[in-house]
Structure formats: C-alpha cells, structure tokens
Amino acid sequence: MTTIATPDDAPLGMSAGLTLLFAVAGGAAVGNLYWAQPLLAEIAATMRVSPSAASILVTVTQVGYAIGVFLIVPLGDRFSRRRLIPIVMLCSAVALGASAVAPTFPVLLATFLGVGFTTVAGQLLTPLAGDLAEPHQRGRVIGTIVSGILIGILLSRTISGLVADVFGWRAIYGFSCVLIVVLAVVMARVLPPERRRTAVSYPRLLLSVLTSVRQHRRVQITLVIAATAFSVFSMFWTGITFLLSAPPFSYSASQIGLVGLVGLAGALGARRAGRLHDMGWSVGATGAALALALVSLVIAALGSASIAAVLVAVLLVDVAIQAVNVLNQTRVLAIDPAARSRLNTAFVVANFIGGAIGSLLAGILWERGGWSLTMLGASLLIVFALLVWATQRKALAGK
Asked: Taking the CB of residue 134, how many other CB atoms lie within 10 A of it?
C-alpha cells in the first residue's frame, strides 16, 4: 500500500540547480492562472460580454485552483510526488488546449475552471522542497521557489499581452499547452525518489487538512492574513487592467502586460523574505510588509492619472504582498513537518479563495466607482489584515 513520509526522516538537501528547476516549473505552472488578466478587454470584445463578466474568468480560474489544491495537493502526502506531479501537469496541458479552442463564453468558463483545477504542480513542488531541504536552508529554498511562482504570475501578464497583440488571445493557451507538456517530461526524469510513507486513506487525508488547521492557532491566524493580502493582490491586478485599458491611458494588451515587468522587479526584491524567517524576524517583517502595501495603495489611488505613480505603486504592491506571501507560507510549512502538503493545501486554498473574492470585487467596485473605489476597498482589506497582525503577534510567534 502506498505510504507517506514519517516526520523523523532526515531531509535530503536541495541543490541550487534543483531549487531553480522547482522555481521555474512552479512559475510556469501557476502562470496559467493569469494569462487572461491583461486580456480581459480583448476577451470581452471577442466573446461579446461586459468587462465585469470577463473578470469572472479570473474568479472561476482561481476557484478551480482552490478546489484543485484542496483535492489534489494532499495526495502529495500519500502518493509519490515523482509520479503525481507530471500527471497533474499533463492534465493541465489538456485544459489549456481546450481553452485555446473554446467557441463560446460558457465553454471558456468551463475550460478555465479546468485550467485552475489542474494547475497545482507548484503547490506540490513547494512542500516537496520543504521535505528535501536541510533545516538551515529551508526558508531560502522555499523563498526562492515561492518567488519563482510569483514571478511566473507576473511574467504571465507580460507574455500573454505580447503574444495576444501578435497572434490573438487564444494563442497563449496553445503555447502554454506545449510548454507544460515539455516540463512534465522533464520533471518525470529529474524528480528525486522519496522515502517510505505511512498509509493514510484519501477521505482521512482530506479531513486531516481541516484538522491540521484546527490544531494550530498560528496556522489559523496566518491563513486569515494571507487570504486578505492575496485578495488585495488580485483586486489590484484585475483593476489595473481596467484602468490602463481605459482613457487616459487606452493601452493595448501588450502595453498592459509590460507593466507586469515592474512587478517582476518587486518579486525579485521580495525573494529574500524567506531569509528573514530563517533569522527569526518573520512576524515583524510581515507587519512591515502589510504597512508598505497600505502605502502603495494610497499612492495608486492618488496617482491614477500618472503612469509614473501607477508604476511606483505596482512595484511597491508586489514587494509588499509577495513578501507577506513568502513569510506566511514559510511559517506555515515550518509548523508541522509531517503535514507539509496538507498545511500547504490549507494555505493555498485560503489564498485563492481570497484571490477569487478580490477579482470579483474588482469588477464590481470598478463599475460602481472606478479605480478610486477599487483602491479604497483594497486599502480597507489591508487595514483589516494589519489589525489581525497587531492583535495576534504573540500567537503568530508561537508564544
């Protein structure tokens, strides 16, 4: 019977090359969730739906992702991830190919749901890296992989915009289908074998996700902060598509996508956040990053007519939210080594439920009050996260 790793197994260590491969593969996989963000106006015109209806595509993809993470990622604590990860990636390639040829908006919604459901390889790789890494390198390794995932999110916007301007919005899904197939083959060849595991039934495994959260107050608080921050992240990037595609900017899909390159600089800046965890500064750095996010949203709201101010806000938002994400995920994965896949499942599900709510709110708030109301809503969410952090600091630190 297939078994799951025991907590006293010694880690195998993560080489720099394997860490980089995990980061690239995770970034390429999760980027599939965000191809559509700079293309919403173009997809809306092609499918003859409103911008707010088109924004539901992002919401549906994130909901699918949350469901997929909950149902698939815990299997990493039961089955060999060396086999599971390539299989999941091939299923994602099928959903991407179907999205490329979807004839109607309802069909596109269904295929995007499938893309979200199967795009979970990155969240299988992250706990695997946590298992393989030595304790002294775990924060750095996870920080690098999570940053790779976040860079994939940001680059996806730039790449999809450029490809859409030349070949149309459908082409990016065809190209991604091919890329994911190639990566699935590579991962099948290079993923290391895993140690012997203790048998757990699938229903018990899923139930243990909730049990693991209930047992650890630090996890509960971290999930609230993480979900709120990721909701703001999704609100910001969905709303900025509407802002830059409308007057006075009237940017094309490729121009909107290029704005993502500024966010990429933010992701590189946040890469070292995992080291702060290793140094024991995780809780304090989380509060500082949330405060920076609030400042960046104020800049975004006040400078909406200036592309320079918008770009500064993009940079700061991404540094802040990605630092929060890296610190929160590293903290969660350090709490219970025997349940890393399940705790990671809870973390990502919470994040993307927050993200789905954020993208939905962005469409609603944009139609009612434009960019200013969208940024006000995002700012209120960050204030809420800061209040949770301020009142629960001791619990977050495990005191």
From this structure: 12
Q: Is the model's pLDDT at 3 over the cut of 70?
A: no
pTM: 0.74
Amino acid at the residue 159: I
Rounded to the nearest 10°, the torsion over CA 180, 186, 192, 194 is 40
CA contacts within 13 A on the Cβ side of 296: 26
Beta strands in the chain (DSSP E): 4-5, 197-198
Q: Is 54 exposed, middle or buried (0-12, 13-18, 19+ CB in 10 A)?
A: buried
Give CA–CA dist 362/107, Å, rounded.
23
Query: How many whole angstroms separate alpha carbon 10 and alpha carbon 133?
Result: 9
Buried b (16+ CB within 10 A) or exposed e, 21-32: bbbbbbbbbbbb
pLDDT by residue (tens digit) across 296-341?
A: 999 999 988 899 999 999 999 988 998 898 888 888 877 877 777 7
Helix, strand, coil tally for the chain in percent (to 5): 80, 0, 15
Helical segments of 73-216, H only: 81-100, 105-118, 121-132, 138-167, 171-190, 202-215
pLDDT of residue 197: 60
Distance CA 49, CA 26 (A): 32
Q: What is the pLDDT of residues 130-156, one digit of tens each?
A: 777 777 777 778 778 877 887 887 788
**Helix count and strand count (H, E) for the chain:** 16, 2
| Residue 261: strand, helix, or coil | helix
Look up the CATH superfamily of 17-191+206-396.
MFS general substrate transporter like domains (1.20.1250.20)
27, 151 Cβ separation under 8 angstroms:
yes
pLDDT tens, position by position, 83-139: 899 999 999 999 999 999 999 999 999 999 999 999 988 888 887 887 777 777 777
CB 329 within 8 A of CB 343: no
**Burial class for 132, CB neighbours closer than 10 Å (0-12, 13-18, 19+):** buried
Exposure of 140 in the CB half-sphere (CA atoms within 13 A): 12
